[in-house]
Amino acid sequence: MMVTQAYAQEAATPTEEPVEGAIDAGHADPTAGTHAATEAGAHESGVFPPFDPASFPSQLLWLAVSFGAFYLLMSKIALPRIGGILENRKAIIDADLAAADASRQKTDAAIAAYEAALADAKAKAQGIANETREAIQADLAAKRSAVEADLSAKVTAAESRIAATKSEALTHVDEIAVETAQTVVTQLVGDVSADSVRAAVAKAKE
Prior knowledge:
Elements: H1 2-12, H2 32-45, H3 56-171, H4 173-189, H5 194-205
Helix pairs in contact: 1-2, 4-5
């Protein structure tokens, strides 16, 4: 609307200088006047061209074309590449997570096996210690019993020998007494028969 008014105003205003190329009316550019009118209207209105409402349709057209081209470029080239990179990165992360989980399971299994082996070793060590202690105690008890039996046998044998020696000694007491008395009497009064001395000793014992 403003372009038409400006063009009408320019057509109504007389120009001092002829337009270049207007001499040959048959070969004049039909769009020259339109461009001239548009530039004149823009300069006269004082509006920056991109903000001129008259240029909005072309701007919208080029915006739609640019947006469509950009959308096609992104959907056909950039987005598939980005999607492939993201999928590759996701696959790598999933593989790392799976490997980490497998390592964790192996570690848990190794820890469980170690704890089971340690508990088994402790149980075996405790059993061996108990068996060794019982064997030592049984050996000590057997040795003590053997020593006690040996000592008891030796004591019994000693007592038997003492009793036999005592009995044997008691059997010779009378003879010793007779011999001693005979020796003493012989030294005091002279020779004395053994029978008389034996009779005197027997009488003294009564």
